[in-house]
Amino acid sequence: MLSPEALARIDREIAKYPAGQKQSAVMAALRIAQEEKGWLSEETIAFVADYLEMPPVAVYEVATFYNMYDLAPVGKYKLTVCTNLPCALSGGYHAAEHLKERLGIDFNETTPDGLFTLKEGECMGACGDAPVLLVNNHRMCCRMTRERLDALLETLKRQATENTQ
Amino acid sequence: MSTLKLGQMILKDCDESRWRLADYEARGGYQVLRRILTENWSQERVIEEVKTSALRGRGGAGFPTGLKWSFMPRQFPGEKYVVCNSDEGEPGTFKDRDILRYNPHSVIEGMIIAGYAMGASCGYNYIHGEIFEVYERFEEALEEARRAGYLGENILGSGFHFELYAHHGYGAYICGEETALLESIEGKKGQPRFKPPFPASYGLYGKPTTINNTETFASVPFLLAMGGEQFLHLGKPNNGGMKIFSVSGHVNRPGNYEIPMGTPFSELLELAGGVRGGRKLKAVIPGGSSAPVVPGDVMMECTMDYDSIAQAGSMLGSGAVIVMDETTCMVKALERLSYFYYEESCGQCTPCREGTGWLYRIVHRIEHGQGRVEDLELLESATSNIMGRTICALGDAASMPVQSFIKHFRDEFLYHIEHKRCLVPPEVQWAGSDIYVEA
Amino acid sequence: MLTLEIDGKPVEVEDGATVMDAANKLGIYIPHFCYHKKLSIAANCRMCLVEVERAPKPLPACATPATNGMKVRTHSRKAITAQKGVMEFLLINHPLDCPICDQGGECQLQDLAVGYGQSAHRFAEAKRVVADKDLGPLIDTFMTRCINCTRCVRFLAEIGGFQELGQAFRGEHAEILPFLGQTVHSEISGNVIDLCPVGALTSKPFLYRARTWELTRRRSISPHDAWGSNLIVQSKHDTVKRVLPLEFEAINECWLSDRDRFAYEGLNASDRLTRPMVKTDGRWVEVAWQTALEVAANRLASVAEENGDDALAFLAHPMSTVEELYLLKALGAAFGAAVDTRIRQRDARADLARGKVAWLNGSITEIVESDGHWFLGADVRRELPLMAVRLRAAAKAGARIVRWDDSDDDWRIPGVDPHKLTAPAMLVALVHFAKHLGVTLPDWAVGLVQQPSPLSAAEFDALSAALRGAQKRRIWLGRPLRAHPNAAEFEWLAEAIAGALGAKLGWLVDGANAVGAAVVGAQATQTAHQLASAGKAGYLLVNLEPEDFAAPDAVADSFARARTVVALTPYASESLKAAADVLLPIAPFTETSGTLVNIEGRLQSFTAVVRPREMTRPGWKVLAALTAMRTGRSVAYTASDAVRDAALPQGWRTQLAQHGLTAIAPAPTLHASAIPAFDRVTLYQGDMIVRRSASLQATDDAKAERGATIPSEEAAA
Ligand SMILES: Cc1cc2nc3c(=O)[nH]c(=O)nc-3n(C[C@H](O)[C@H](O)[C@H](O)COP(=O)(O)O)c2cc1C
Ligand code: SF4
Ligand code: FES
Fold first, then answer.
1. pLDDT digits (tens, 9 = 90+) for C570-606
2. A 2-41 near B (Cβ less than 8 A)
3. pLDDT (0 to 100) of residue C137
């Protein structure tokens, strides 16, 4: 279900916690599983539950509680733009609008080519760098002017075609 | 690109290229830990120094840190935990991110010392999921500290043992609440626990636990290096030390400013380049989005410390200063904040689960020209039914903006309800908040 | 001890008690939803907010520790304002569908809304709608009504032993649900229906069958296992509509197993026998009672006369009452017939050699007090679902629990240490363990001890250390072990080991009145199973169908070959119609009075809940009439109480065993290769009523079990 590398990474997370507290690694395990699979399917969640010896519904509770887990497939690049007030005061809304226009999609939608999904985010703890957005949860892009947003889209598109070749 | 604009203590002389162990050591890092261990300080002595310094929690509640440490049953046999709260999610707050990426070892040293002072041999740093790159860097820093013998068995040959791990969040503001954070480390949903029992007696895995904010821990090596007394004198009585203020919104130079407690707000605003476009200051949220909003003129009279801001009817909170100029529609601003609390309520207790959605919908209605005359009274009554009735303070956090926005900007709300539109013309409103990146 | 004051009344409570506990002690009601005395404290509904002197905010009574000198006011302005505020929040998203809600009339939300609700509705937004969930054939959901108290989640995790429901998503989107694509499989799942304070979780079999205020309520005792759970049976127009737990702390607390809760559907099955019938020339004809009794008595008499001493066996289900069994014993004596109820036991030697009656050997409440448990050949969740609940509590309190059996079934008890052993392997292991403990082995064990031990000496040491480390040690003999052909050898070894370890033996008996049956002497030298398959010339069956026996096919065959089979039964199943030639309709437990002695030797009498169907008669009266016919002397009982008193004279409890058996005679040398496997225990095949509960039969558990075909519930009942 998950690759040996992913399992090894999960094992390293388990080792952070006291004996008998495997469950503490559930957030990391779901994150690692999502990195590998792109999103968290029922099967993946059940697998993580089994691996950590947790009731599946308890893992599901966790997967649905935290925003950054995707319970449905997303585009190759998930862009999450912060529109919370501090960011909005410095262009958070405008950046999101710009992306919507360029991608031709609204929040929670995916472009027809399957490349981009757009999400509205809450405070990322980087308000001084507004507008900010996350690429696939982990890469933060700061001070995103319209030009830089366009450049980012171009780079990601190029990356995607290079990867498929 | 850096949000660090002024570092005078924790953030002094460090940046993107100087975060590593060697850099920290060059700045005098880990000297305090070495001294404590080689001079065999008593736990009480460490805690006394912290008490003297009047260091107050930098996470929001401003609880005296030394006092909190003294609550730990230090002699209690068995595991005890020290937990760092780096789940910085309070809108407007972005200081812990800079501490972690530019000076991670100050947090590590602070936590080791805390572990020593409270008889704990294990710690976790819970890092906001959205700053994942910072989490990865912190793990690297931990590895450096381990290799250098600052972490693990028999630290610096003293016989003291301390392990420290990073745990990441994954998108839930509520995990900044300390007991929700503990639940989250335990692998559950981040739903806060009812207190009592407090973490000092029943914390992580049911063991005595002390939780402090990133900046609080990072301050510890510095205050011990200079002595509690001197740290206190950096600031004001009862408001010791330096504090990092995250300034965001309509200023020319948004960023983190590490300045003495008690600095006048006007000076901070000036450091931040003043209000953008030379416009007039309308309002400031001085302590993160949960703190009551303060009208601009009142704010200009305040100094940046717990007591002065409290006198102005708000809270210093996490030190996140959200600046709004005259082009800001206060109804729209409140709508966005109310949406945030509605989105982030953990769903556990009734008033918050049901109430935050109600608040948001009413404000949303007013903003969209469907407000009713009785709505303001309804908002006041609904917020007072939430405040003080919930398991954790998120209920209060969701209510205080609503109450304070209405209190100070009632006219604007009434205008919306009556005229079905905003006092601030939409063109201006948007212009003032367009993408702004300082040159 | 702490002293505090609530609403001006002083009260003393234990350290660690909450304000709610103190109020309960005073009989002061504090409104609440999430709080439940048997569940962990969640403090999430906030309905129980009260004013505490010197506290700036109202505090939840359920979670606030009582302190010395505390002054609490539950009805002050501050408290009432807080409670009303919470009620408003609970109602804003709650559908006001009380008129069509099954919870109507017994809804905590409805009751409290009357007292605390605001008359004017200030909520002008659209109400939230939550999708319903599939929780299987027993529980229906109306999730829009859910108030997220999480009682159901906590019950399944804490009492049921496995978290099958969760609260997913967050904030206003929070929903109670099972894991994707799953339902609830707990054998005690129905309790969430009682726990749900609103109509979010309701009984599927009861759905829209009646409004609660139309129902008549009577106390009864469950006949489906030996626990003796106390029931409230609710009926309308002489039809049982619903069964609920009657709270009885020492037995079932406030719980019921699903078997006890939903079996009642079987009472209304379409194949109820309501008139006496006689088979003549292969055809069934309805006859008058007197005729039927005469035919039955005559046929049995002629078999007795023509086929000699050993010709007859009178067998009863161990759910039969003390009264029925006592009179069956008398009837057996009159006909010279063997009488027995051990329908699934293949070995009578243990009971014979022990002499005394197998039982729990202690009280139910002692289970939680015992801190070392070793289960041999048991299947606790299926045998006695509520014993598993007690064991979970024991485990939580730190008890060590070890199990030896051949099943993969998860007991859902945290920390249980399982050892999977087949019957022969277990016997060999026990012999080695006994030897390891210095027990002198009898001759029959010589062949076994030559086999290699399935467990190492270190494992034996760990086991004895675990048990010796406990203050109160129990060794439990489960139903599969007791049903095994070598039950006597198993019990001998268990007793020897118990002696060496200072542990007490306990028997998990099979049948609601198994203890009562043994006490009244409804036991022959062969078990009912043995007698049934022995091809007797005549049988009399009470509350039995061939499906009840361990080997139903062989038994059906044996019945088919008999000259006469008289069945006293509430049902006329096809299998019974094929096997029997006289069918006498007797009342199930809801239609007559009687007594059951439960596993802990507690005698519990009950009375009829509804009138007997048509010509159905109480079993004990039918048995008395048959005896009278045979002996020519009329039997002088006018009420079942008198039968009970005759059956259980003073001092009957001295018959209960304190120890296992200590000698088996004569026993040939045993070889592991000759030892068969354990039988499986079923959840939903154990008696004729349970087998007819359509809802229970629709569960995944029942589907997985081999079983009889189930007639559907009577239409338009
Ligand atoms: C809803 C909510 C969110 C919070 N978020 C944070 C946070 O992001 N970071 C933080 O340090 N404290 C946060 N707190 C405060 C913590 O509960 C806790 O008081 C703090 O971490 C203690 O550390 P300190 O004493 O060093 O401030 C939050 C509290 C609440 C009620
Ligand atoms: S379904 Fe019922 S018991 Fe479960 S949380 Fe909802 S209201 Fe409570
Ligand atoms: S009963 Fe106390 S909060 Fe629900």
1. 999 999 999 999 999 999 999 999 999 999 999 999 9
2. 16-18, 21-28, 30-31
3. 97
Using CA atoms, how far residue C632 sits from C313, C334, C626, C629, in Å, is 21, 10, 10, 5
Positive or negative: CA dihedral C208, C212, C214, C219: positive
Q: Which residue owns the Cα nearest ligand 1 atom 18?
A: B178
Is B295 a residue whose pLDDT tops 70?
yes
**Nearest C-alpha neighbor of C197 from the set C122, C338, C87:** C87
User: Closest by alpha carbon to C537, among C301, C243, C215, C323?
Assistant: C301
Q: Residue C161 and residue C159: Cα distance in Å, rounded?
A: 5
A148: closest CA of chain B, how far (Å):
11
Tell me the ipTM for this assembly.
0.95
Which residue numbers in chain C have pLDDT < 50? 707-717
Residues counted in chain A = 165
Q: Which long-range contacts (CB under 8 A, 24 or more apart) does B423-426 make?
A: B423/B329, B424/B326, B424/B327, B424/B328, B424/B329
Mean pLDDT within B60-87? 95
Q: Distance (Å) from the C-alpha of residue B294 to the closest C-alpha of chain A?
A: 15
Rounded mean pLDDT, A97-123: 97
Contacts of A64 in chain C (CB under 8 A): 168-170
**Those residues with Cβ within 8 angstroms of residue C420's Cβ, 6 or more apart along the chain or in another chain:** C405, C406, C407, C408
Interface check for A48 against chain B (CB to CB < 8 A): the answer is no
Q: Residue A44 has which token pair?
A: 């993946």
Q: Say yes or no: B390 contacts chain C, CB-CB below 8 A.
A: yes
Whether chain C has a CB inside 8 Å of the CB on A46: the answer is yes
Query: Chain B: nearest CA to C187, how far in angstroms?
Result: 26
pLDDT for C710 equals 40
Question: Are C45 and B356 in contact (CB < 8 Å)?
Answer: no
Nearest to C170 among B194, B345, B389 (CB): B345
Alpha carbon of B57 to ligand 1 centroid (Å): 9
How far is Cα C1 from Cα C16, in angstroms, rounded to an integer?
9
Task: Report chain A's mean pLDDT, rounded to a whole number.
Answer: 97
Return the C-alpha torsion angle C176, C182, C186, C192, nearest 10: 20
Strand order in the sheet with C564-569: C283-286, C277-280, C582-585, C564-569, C538-542, C312-316, C338-340
Give every CB contact of residue B405 below 8 A, 6+ residues apart in sequence.
Answer: B293, B330, B331, B333, B334, B413
Chains that touch C (3 or more CB pairs under 8 A): A, B
pLDDT digits (tens, 9 = 90+) for A5-59: 999 999 999 999 999 999 999 999 999 999 999 999 999 999 999 999 999 999 9
Q: Which of C198, C202, C203 to mutate to test the pocket of ligand 2 (most atoms within 8 A of CB)?
A: C198
User: Residue B436 in 3-state DSSP?
Assistant: coil
Token code pair at residue A69: 């887990």
Nearest CA in chain B to A95: B435
What is the CA(C33)–ligand 3 centre distance, in A? Answer: 6
pLDDT of residue A165: 63
pLDDT score recorded for residue C713: 41
Interval between CA B172 and ligand 1 midpoint (Å): 13
pLDDT (0 to 100) of residue C708: 41
pTM listed for this prediction: 0.96
Interchain CB contact of A67 with C (< 8 Å): no
Tell which atom from ligand 1 comes closest to the C-alpha of B58. 27
Question: What count of CB pairs under 8 Å joins A to B?
Answer: 186
Give the chain C residue whose CA is nearest to the CA of B361: C125
Cα–Cα nearest to C535, from C509, C507, C563: C563
- At B1 the pLDDT is 61
Angle ∠(C307,C310,C312) on CA atoms, nearest 5: 80
Instruction: Report the alpha-carbon distance of residue C643 to residue C232 in Å, rounded.
Output: 25
Distance C21 CA to ligand 2 centre (A): 22
